[in-house]
Amino acid sequence: MSATDDPPVRAERALRDSPPHALLDVLRAALQADFGATDSELLLADYRLSVLQPVTRLPHTAAPMPIRTSTAGRAFTAQQTLLEPVHGDGVTAYLPVAVRGDRLGVLAVTLPDVPGDGARRALADLATALGHELVVAERDTDLYLQARRRERLSLAAEMQWQLLPGRGCSRDEYSLGGQLEPAYTIGGDNFDWSASADHLTVTVSNGMGSGIRAALLTNLAISALRNARRAGLGLVDQACLADQAVYAQYGGAEHVATLLLRFELSTGRVAVVDAGSPHLLRLRDGEVQLVPFEEQMPLGMFESTDYQEQDFQVEPGDRLVVVSDGVHTARSPSGGEYGATNLDRIIRDSRYLPAPEAARAIITELLDYHEGNDLLDDAVVVCLDWTGAKA
Fold first, then answer.
1. pLDDT at residue 241 is higher than 90
2. What PANTHER family does this protein's entry cite (predicted)?
3. Which of 76, 69, 74, 135 is CA-nearest to residue 100?
């Protein structure tokens, strides 16, 4: 058998040739023909990362699966293939769908028999291939974005989610994940990252205000930072040009608190510009510490701010958690302050979870503290695990 006759290769080729809206139909046919699958379903994580939403024909009326308590949810959080017996004969394989560390959802495939190791690897490869095709397909269809919505997004939230590079990424030196809340009405908080061969740049931003006004402000700041970064400028110049762009538009009446981090992948040296309120906490050897920086003016507050670069060192095994003031100054509906004690505890309690799942756990803890109510202020959490360069 030639490589092109191999079932996984045929299925991947069929996915590439599929119309964007028909990826699941094409994959179902391939899974039935090559693996004897009796059913298959794509479950995408909703914006809050609380449930897995089935991709069905509009208006997506199939019941979602809770991430906390379902086998599909455990496959998603652990990023491992899990098997679950079905009534009668057969088994359902839950296969994580992710792209370079960005978790999208789970592919559920019902099979007549427990798959062997080879079939399990082939199915996992197909789930990964599906993830890559989903990312490309979202340029041309709204189907998969609509399927992720447990409720309607506000216009400001639509703008903020479209601004994100993703919700996670990983490579040998690091793994990171982030989450925004309130997921369906987020206004001013956001995060961004970009990696090259030698560096990783991460920014966490907190635009003042709420709603569309805050979303427009943050969009301008992040776009200005990206424009400067893509021009090859250093961290200080990125902050200065974004500062000037925001001031030129708002004249100091609006500003964006931003933490800029640039990791040197070969050494673990981190350059920092602290332009406002996001806090960085480090978990090392089981202890959580606030990493102190000289706090400088938020972007856009004054006509010309002279930013200064600081630095610190990360070590293999370190976990960094960046939170906006919607986390570290949060209050419950009854007025109780969330505070550093609760934050430190959940960071320690989630230390064995992968970075993207730890970010979700911290946000979930914050939501529980708010007794099921939407947060009173926008909140962003970004979690980064530092592995370090290979020797």
1. yes
2. STAGE II SPORULATION PROTEIN E (PTHR43156:SF2), STAGE II SPORULATION PROTEIN E-RELATED (PTHR43156)
3. 135
Class of 155-386 per CATH?
Answer: alpha beta
User: Does the fold of domain 155-386 match that of domain 7-148?
Assistant: no
- Read off φ and ψ for residue 262, nearest 5 degrees: -130, 110
Contact 20, 140 (CB under 8 A): yes
Query: For residue 372, what pLDDT is reported?
Result: 65
Summarize pLDDT for 142-154 with one digit per residue, the tens: 999 999 999 999 9
Q: Let me know: does 21 contact 56? Beta carbons within 8 Å.
A: no
What is the token pair recorded at 34? 């090559």
pTM confidence score = 0.92
Start-end of H helices in 153-258 = 155-163, 211-230, 235-250
* Nearest C-alpha neighbor of 224 from the set 177, 256, 176: 256
Q: Where are the domains of the chain?
A: 7-148, 155-386
Chain-centre distance of CA 54, in angstroms?
Answer: 20
The answer to whether domain 7-148 has CATH 3.30.420.40 is no
And the tokens for 189?
Answer: 């908080």
Phi-psi bin for 211: left (phi > 0), alpha (psi -120 to 50), beta? Answer: left
Mean pLDDT of 208-230: 96
Please say whether the beta carbons of 107 and 40 come within 8 A. yes
Q: Give dist(CA 324, CA 204) in Å, integer.
A: 8
CA-CA distance, 75 to 96, in Å (whole number)? 6
**For residues 266 and 198, is the Cβ–Cβ distance under 8 A?**
yes
323: left (phi over 0), alpha (psi -120 to 50) or beta: beta
Q: Using alpha carbons only, how large is the chain's radius of gyration in Å? A: 22
